[in-house]
């Protein structure tokens, strides 16, 4: 059995319909175009590889990742291989390049019998606050006691946005006492309250809009110092939220965050609105931080644990199917 068939058997067993639907746009660009190539070329040769390279680039995997993929193919695949075998190897290469031990640690580091702290960071508009709401809903469903902290004191309306979620989800929130209060002091209040009330999870919202990298670094350093002073091994997760629609551009902005603070995981949002599903591989290449959560829409249940096998299967599944696009 080829690599893809094994992957298929595994993934079809616990079929993820929502992911399948969400990745449809990307799949169209990716599988459909590669399939068109398969009709054009009877067997593998350099022209095939050159055209394949263009299709991979269009799926927003990032140039470096694409070159790593095509180099591996060039080394292994011999002239005369069937296109089907070549594509099977392509899927294996994509999986191997993503799947190093580090990226397998995609479970959130949440433990019982401690106050868990999750710090959300990312550029403005990436989906931090919305993701907090979805995460909160999931924790509530798991009977966890949640406290939200409105650490975004920069943007007018940010506190109110989180407050509305807190009311809707009926969880406690710590807000600034006055407009423009230092985020670190709001976070301090939140940690004290979280410890007093023995909550299971404190989720801290932060501002995305900071003028430059030095400011960002100072701000996050200060926040981290306060957190560590109150809860030594916290934050247990620093989740960097990246808007999937912005593709490469979003990644280079996100890089600023990963360079100034210890990011433990990526949340990839708005995957319902993009054909750039290859961005997952670009993140792997450029940030080398595991994607832990993926947002497939606006509903709380649309926030899912990221599963690379399901993801790659749903990206490539039509490559080997004659009928579907
Ligand atoms: N379709 C879709 N929209 C999303 C998703 N996540 C967030 N959004 C939308 O993206 C917009 C920005 O989301 P926010 O959660 O406010 O982003 P933020 O990072 O908190 O932004 P700032 O507070 O300005 O830094 C909102 O209109 C959300 O409804 C998603 O997974 N899918
Ligand atoms: Mg926000």
List the main descriptive attributes of the protein structure presented here.
325 residues, alpha/beta, Four Helix Bundle (Hemerythrin (Met), subunit A), Rossmann fold, 2 domains, eight-stranded mixed beta sheet, binds guanosine-5'-triphosphate, binds magnesium ion
Number of domains: 2
Basic shape:
elongated
Ions, cofactors and other ligands present here are: guanosine-5'-triphosphate, magnesium ion
Task: Please count the beta strands (DSSP E, at least 2 residues each).
Answer: 8
What's the SSE pattern?
HHHHHHEHEHEHEHEHEHEEH
Broad structural category: alpha/beta
Low-confidence stretches: none
CATH topology of the largest domain: Rossmann fold
CATH level-1 class of the largest domain: Alpha Beta
Determine the strand fraction and express it as a percent band. 5-15%
Mean pLDDT: 89
Characterize the biggest β-sheet. Answer: 8 strands, mixed
Q: What do we call the CATH homologous superfamily of the largest domain? A: P-loop containing nucleotide triphosphate hydrolases
Radius of gyration: 22 Å
Number of helices: 13
End-to-end separation: 23 Å
Helical percentage: 40-55%
Descriptive account of the structure:
The protein is α/β, with parallel strands linked by helices and 325 residues long. It folds into two domains: 17-103 and 312-320, Four Helix Bundle (Hemerythrin (Met), subunit A), CATH 1.20.120; 107-306, P-loop containing nucleotide triphosphate hydrolases (Rossmann fold, 3-Layer(aba) Sandwich), CATH 3.40.50.300. The protein has 13 helices and eight strands. The protein has helices at 3-13, 17-22, 24-40, 46-58, 63-76, 83-98, 128-141, 158-169, 183-196, 213-230, 247-260, 279-286, 308-316, and strands at 116-121, 146-151, 172-174, 201-206, 237-243, 265-269, 291-295, 303-305. Strands 3-2-4-1-5-6-7-8 form an eight-stranded mixed beta sheet, with helices on both faces. A hairpin with a 7-residue loop joins strand 7 (291-295) and strand 8. Helix 4 (46-58) packs antiparallel against helix 5 (63-76) and helix 6 (83-98) runs antiparallel to helix 13. The protein is elongated and about 70 Å long. It starts with a helix and ends in a 9-residue tail after the last helix. The mean pLDDT is 89. Guanosine-5'-triphosphate binds next to helix 7.
